[in-house]
Amino acid sequence: MSGFDLSGLTASFSGKRVIGPLSLHVNPGDKIALVGKSGAGKSTLIRLIHERVNRNSSLIPQDLGLVNALSVFHNVFMGQLDRHSTWYNTVTLARPFSKDRAEVHTLLQSLGMTEKLWTPAASLSGGQRQRVAIARALYRNAPVLLADEPVSALDGPMANSVMTYLRDRFSTSIIALHDVELALNYCTRIVGIYDGQIALDQPSENLAASDIMSLY
Ligand SMILES: Nc1ncnc2c1ncn2[C@@H]1O[C@H](COP(=O)(O)OP(=O)(O)OP(=O)(O)O)[C@@H](O)[C@H]1O
Question: Which of 184, 177, 191, 176 is nearest to 210 (CA)?
């Protein structure tokens, strides 16, 4: 997918405008960090962007969107549900194909979670649940990653290794991040949100953490 233009993005709750109207031009290869204080509108903006680029994106929402009763395998497999027939998906629910088992296993290996392949999502820790949502996005393998605080429940080394992985696997990404150092280290462009508007839009290389702190 080449770059895309998003314009007229707005969102309101109970008549109160929380986003926009705003426009964002995303260049192919952009790795954008959305930063800003809690309540600024980052999650809402990720949701709005997802509505526009839906099928071309891999989404990691803040609430992760896992199905608790299903195994880790099946939650990851959901990343490609819309690419298979109903027949294929139904058979997979009962007896996954070996090709898919192998592919999901390899992804989980890179996230240190192979031993949980058949564990129901309900029995996982917060960090494990987050890694399942990450694996689902990787399995979907769409051209654009949209992620909302994707490593907030991971320890430092794991967070860094997952951010490296996401940076290498997705050519274009928009990631909401509270951690300013992660944003500067793993993203090429920083978009700061303040009161539902873009208050900062700069290449990461032009910024220091202190420049971003004015948004908080
Ligand atoms: N479902 C909802 N109903 C009512 N208000 C909402 C809803 N979702 C978000 N809001 C409001 O919209 C504003 C932006 O919220 P949003 O979750 O997008 O912020 P955020 O920057 O992602 O915050 P955080 O960093 O805490 O996740 C907030 O004032 C929030 O209270």
Answer: 184
Helix (H, G, I), strand (E, B) or coil at 203: strand
What is the distance between the terminal CA atoms of the chain, rounded to a whole angstrom?
Answer: 33
**CATH topology for 4-213?**
Rossmann fold (3.40.50)
Considering only CA atoms, which residue is closest to atom 1 of ligand 1?
13
pLDDT of residue 1: 61
Ligand 1 atom closest to the CA of 46, numbered from 1 = 18
Q: How far apart are CA 192 and CA 89, in angstroms?
A: 40
- Predicted ipTM beyond 0.90: yes
Report the greatest alpha carbon distance in the chain.
Answer: 54
State whether the beta carbon of 40 lies less than 6 angstroms from ligand 1. yes
Confidence (pTM)? 0.94
- Please indicate whether residue 75, judged by its CB atom, sits closer than 6 Å to ligand 1: no
- Is the C-beta atom of 44 inside 6 A of ligand 1? yes
Decide: 36 in ligand 1 pocket, CB within 6 A. Answer: yes
